[in-house]
Amino acid sequence: MPLPSILLGFLLSTSFAALFHLIRSGSLRQFGTYLLASWGGFWLGDTLGWLLGWHFGAVGYLNTGMASLSALTALLLTDLVLRLRE
Question: In angstroms, rounded to a whole number, what is the distance separating the alpha carbons of residues 50 and 25?
């Protein structure tokens, strides 16, 4: 995968985590957790999208549609776990 695709992926997934943290608020520690969840979910979704043949919203070598859905799902699940632990 070319470097511009990787940078776009990290930019998008970081933006998802930052926006999610802005909406849900919380501590810096929660932001770090959201960031890791978004990164992991994004790249897992990108990989699964290509392996399963679900190519929607693809930008070059980056399957942004599936990756975005996966990142948002990971953020919601992470938020649920963090709220249950409180």
Answer: 33
Q: What is the pLDDT along the chain (86 residues), one digit of tens a residue?
A: 899 999 999 999 999 999 999 998 888 999 999 999 999 999 999 999 999 988 888 888 899 999 999 999 999 999 999 989 87
The tally of domains found in the chain comes to 1
Domain, as residue range, for 50: 3-85
Q: Which residues pair with 45 in a beta bridge?
A: none
Distance between CA atoms of residues 14 and 11, nearest Å: 5
H or E element: which one contains 26?
A: none
pTM: predicted TM-score of the whole model, two decimal places? 0.90
Task: Tell the residue number behind the tokens 């693809």, with chain if given.
Answer: 58
Q: Are strands 62-63 and 58-59 parallel, antiparallel or unpaired?
A: antiparallel
Q: Around 58, how many Cα atoms within 13 Å sit in the side-chain half-sphere?
A: 12
DSSP one-letter code for 81: H
